[in-house]
């Protein structure tokens, strides 16, 4: 079966870049990305690629290479479903904020809506691909809905989790470590798997395309994220011990990372991991484990989140303690709001929680981030519902210029590892700050000795 028409439901951080790369690499396949959010679609279609809704290095060129040729962004969900032989579901699956599993389980209402819509529209056989991260056995639920509400057409469900990391999405998509495709084990399932393998084989060597059963594929995604997050929590746990013992967490990370069994990646101590995946997926894993009565398994993974919360909290507490136990009325400049560099995504960013803690201490927070929009920052804080939106507006000011953000500040907190922070005129910043001029480097991006020699009272993570 040769795929000529692909539809992707959901034009977000995963759907947008992934489909743009498929279109770019497969000129013979028409790719249509649909979304209910008309503004988002308009932004994807914007002539000026600075207005694309997702910021990713290299994404603009990829979009420009295919848009209008074989890559289309549209709000006409039904037409795109009808035309496609293969439909990717790439909608959001946030943690549930209500009811059973609140705060832990993934909310699958958007997935279910997609499945129902596909079922009602499809007039011929379709391959439905889960791209969003989903709990194990979601494919079964999707299949159930499709088979029972559809027009008698046949559906094959594949799981094809996305492993791209934001900020490096385009490189990750162009040369992934592996592509994982899970599908049915019968002949028809195999045929569907082969159809998707053929799409990726346009640019990815076959030996890097891994095929498994659906459940292994779904669980592998959760497992990969849990392992990655666990490494960050593990090194962050050691960072606190380093601070007490005089060890340096960067040196420890280097020393252990040279052990080929451990490896050097994901050992950067930080103010805490963020992003739309790690916390959500681990909570989901914990929920699933609990639902099978596997309490020890659940507790084991939950500790990764507990450690991460502690790391964010103690960063904020250290600022308060160091500033003579009060930040009330003091300007604290935040450099960075995104959950990591090279993205405008702020979901679960440590900055949100550190800001929340400092607002409780009545600090005045001044934020500068090179890519995050002002309204996103307020939306993030308001979403916590820890105080009234007016109070967030009062406590937080957003700056377009880092030097203005830092002017007259009592302290600077670095929350994202944007490269540009290293190149600032730190003497100028120092001269314009209140003294002592405190810097709290939550990402260990600045040179400690250099900063201290300029006069800053400098504190980093794990040193
Ligand atoms: C992650 C997975 O890496 C990716 O495979 C999956 O598809 C989605 O989730 P992402 O969340 O985009 O990707 O970024 P990632 O690079 O994994 O970083 C997640 C968080 O961990 C960021 O806040 C980052 O700053 C933090 N981190 C990462 C550290 O604090 N230290 C590290 O060593 C690595
Ligand atoms: P991710 O990081 O997983 O890509 P995003 O929130 O960035 O998540 O994107 C998910 C997108 O899916 C959003 O733009 C949302 O509007 C869209 N979406 C959710 N449900 C539907 C649906 N039933 N039909 C079309 N689009 C949907």
TrEMBL record:
SMART domains: UDPG_MGDP_dh_C (SM00984). Substrate binds at residues 162-166, 221-225, 261, 268-274, 339-340, 443. The keyword Oxidoreductase applies. Its EC number is 1.1.1.22. It holds the Pfam family UDPG_MGDP_dh_C. The active site is at residue 277. NAD(+) binds at residues 10-15, 35, 40, 91-95, 132-133, 166, 277-280, 347. Residues 333-448 form the UDP-glucose/GDP-mannose dehydrogenase C-terminal domain. The keyword Disulfide bond does not apply. GO terms for molecular function: NAD binding; UDP-glucose 6-dehydrogenase activity. Keywords: NAD, Oxidoreductase. SUPFAM superfamilies: 6-phosphogluconate dehydrogenase C-terminal domain-like, NAD(P)-binding Rossmann-fold domains, UDP-glucose/GDP-mannose dehydrogenase C-terminal domain. Pathway: Nucleotide-sugar biosynthesis; UDP-alpha-D-glucuronate biosynthesis; UDP-alpha-D-glucuronate from UDP-alpha-D-glucose: step 1/1. It is an enzyme of class 1 (oxidoreductase). It catalyses: UDP-alpha-D-glucose + 2 NAD(+) + H2O = UDP-alpha-D-glucuronate + 2 NADH + 3 H(+). GO terms for biological process: glycosaminoglycan biosynthetic process; UDP-glucuronate biosynthetic process. Belongs to the UDP-glucose/GDP-mannose dehydrogenase family. Catalyzes the conversion of UDP-glucose into UDP-glucuronate, one of the precursors of teichuronic acid. This is UDP-glucose 6-dehydrogenase.
């Amino acid at each position: 079966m040769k795929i000529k028409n692909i539809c992707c439901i959901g034009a977000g951080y995963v759907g947008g870049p992934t489909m743009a790369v498929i279109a770019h690499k497969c000129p013979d396949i028409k790719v249509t990305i649909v979304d209910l959010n008309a503004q988002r679609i308009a932004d994807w279609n914007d002539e000026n690629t600075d207005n694309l809704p997702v910021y990713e290095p290299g994404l603009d060129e990829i979009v420009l290479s295919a848009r209008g040729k074989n890559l289309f962004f549209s709000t006409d969900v039904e037409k795109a479903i009808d035309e496609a032989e293969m439909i990717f579901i790439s909608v959001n699956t946030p943690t549930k904020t209500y009811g059973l599993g609140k705060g832990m389980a993934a909310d699958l209402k958007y997935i279910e809506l997609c499945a129902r819509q596909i079922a009602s529209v499809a007039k011929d056989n379709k391959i439905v691909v889960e791209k969003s991260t989903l709990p194990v056995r979601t494919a079964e639920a999707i299949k159930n809905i499709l088979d029972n509400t559809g027009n008698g057409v046949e559906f094959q469900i594949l799981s094809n989790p996305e492993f791209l990391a934001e900020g490096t999405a385009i490189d990750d998509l162009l040369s992934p470590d592996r592509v994982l495709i899970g599908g049915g084990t019968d002949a028809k399932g195999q045929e569907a798997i082969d159809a998707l393998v053929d799409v990726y084989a346009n640019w990815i060597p076959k030996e890097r395309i891994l095929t498994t059963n659906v459940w292994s594929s779904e669980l592998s995604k959760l497992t990969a994220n849990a392992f990655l997050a666990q490494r960050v929590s593990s090194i962050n746990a050691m960072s606190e011990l380093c601070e007490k013992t005089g060890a340096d967490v960067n040196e420890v990370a280097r020393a252990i990372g040279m052990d080929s069994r451990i490896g050097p990646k994901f050992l950067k101590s930080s103010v805490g991991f963020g992003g739309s995946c790690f916390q959500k997926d681990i909570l989901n894993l914990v929920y699933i484990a609990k639902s099978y009565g596997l309490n020890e398994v659940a507790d084991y993974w939950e500790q990764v989140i507990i450690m991460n919360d502690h790391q964010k909290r103690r960063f904020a507490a250290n600022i308060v303690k160091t500033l003579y136990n009060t930040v009330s009325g003091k300007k604290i400049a935040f450099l960075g709001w995104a959950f990591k560099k090279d993205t405008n995504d702020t979901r679960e960013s440590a900055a949100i929680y550190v800001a929340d803690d400092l607002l409780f201490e009545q600090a005045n927070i001044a934020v500068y981030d090179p890519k995050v929009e002002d309204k996103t920052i307020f939306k993030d804080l308001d979403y916590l519902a820890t105080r009234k939106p007016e109070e967030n507006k009062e406590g937080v000011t957003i700056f377009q210029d880092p030097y203005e953000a830092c002017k007259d500040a009592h302290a600077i907190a670095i929350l994202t590892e944007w490269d540009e922070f290293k190149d600032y005129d730190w003497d100028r910043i120092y001269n314009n700050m209140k003294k002592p001029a405190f810097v709290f480097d939550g990402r260990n991006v600045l040179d400690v000795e250099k900063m201290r020699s300029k006069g800053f009272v400098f504190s980093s993570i794990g040193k």
